[in-house]
Amino acid sequence: MTAILEARGLGKRYGRRQALTDCTLSVPSGRVVGLVGPNGAGKSTLLQLACGLLTPTSGTIEVLGERPASGPAQLARVGFVAQDTPTYAALSVADHLRLGARLNPTWDAHLAEGRIRDLGLDPGLRVGRLSGGQRAQVALTLAVSKRPDLLILDEPVAALDPLARREFLQGLMEYVAEHGTTVILSSHLVSDLERVCDHLVSLVASRVQIAGDVDDLLGSHFRLTTARRDAGDLPEGMHVLQATHTERQSTFIVRADTPGHDPDGVLEPLGLEDLVLTYMAEGTAGPARRPVQEAQR
Ligand SMILES: Nc1ncnc2c1ncn2[C@@H]1O[C@H](COP(=O)(O)OP(=O)(O)OP(=O)(O)O)[C@@H](O)[C@H]1O
């Protein structure tokens, strides 16, 4: 497995606020990685460290084997769209493409012009006159047209309506399938991520709670419904993440490397959204635990 991003003990502090804590993470290349977590968890901080807009307070981060933004060659290999999809309001769409061509050695003009045409955007229109969703599309066009090896998108679909969101993610998937680019995208919308991501990183309260390939994560997390009993009575190998009880029944969310068998209960697979919410609840309820690195099991 070649890692495209490698963080070791990475931390970032803004004044007295610790935004990212002891983050050790290995993101494999060739994946579409979903970064999830509640507001203020540290997602934007991690993404900005990855593209070199921020420098760590502790630990190290390497992207494509080098320190982020260590030089023009490294910068050319990483595309980044920030959360507010920054563009220049007074410049036209065509001006943005000209700027992209002048600033990026690997600029693909054919790709850029094709995307703008497919989006039905008038190249002569000033970007300040576009809707939030259209501006997001222009920002994405700039990022992909530099043909990066790694594309980092901070909440790219936040400003889009559901249909535009679906089209945006579909377009992104087509681009990834064609060019093999690794993508890391953050979002609060787990259902969107479930459709497009094959690797997941969950940050809660500035710490990595869980990281791994989606298939591995889904293959090792289950919901067990049984007659009422204590968590300690469950079969060996089941690590309880969450337990709820009624008078007669208990429901456990468990992590188990193999599904195992419980003669007195019903074991069902867990959806990605339930899995993410379970870890979020666990992470915000108490002290953070050791992160689960499924991919490195
Ligand atoms: N420039 C800054 N100065 C001081 N504190 C900051 C700064 N940027 C972020 N923070 C704080 O760091 C923490 C992590 O913020 P960050 O923006 O990385 O979270 P996030 O997971 O991206 O949140 P959201 O989902 O709301 O965008 C928060 O507590 C935030 O208040």
UniProtKB/TrEMBL annotation:
<dbReference type="Pfam" id="PF00005">
    <property type="entry name" value="ABC_tran"/>
</dbReference>
<dbReference type="InterPro" id="IPR027417">
    <property type="entry name" value="P-loop_NTPase"/>
</dbReference>
<dbReference type="InterPro" id="IPR003593">
    <property type="entry name" value="AAA+_ATPase"/>
</dbReference>
<keyword id="KW-0067">ATP-binding</keyword>
<feature type="domain" description="ABC transporter">
    <location>
        <begin position="5"/>
        <end position="230"/>
    </location>
</feature>
<keyword id="KW-0813">Transport</keyword>
<protein>
    <submittedName>
        <fullName>ABC transporter ATP-binding protein</fullName>
    </submittedName>
</protein>
<dbReference type="InterPro" id="IPR003439">
    <property type="entry name" value="ABC_transporter-like_ATP-bd"/>
</dbReference>
<keyword id="KW-0547">Nucleotide-binding</keyword>
<dbReference type="InterPro" id="IPR051782">
    <property type="entry name" value="ABC_Transporter_VariousFunc"/>
</dbReference>
<dbReference type="GO" id="GO:0005524">
    <property type="term" value="F:ATP binding"/>
</dbReference>
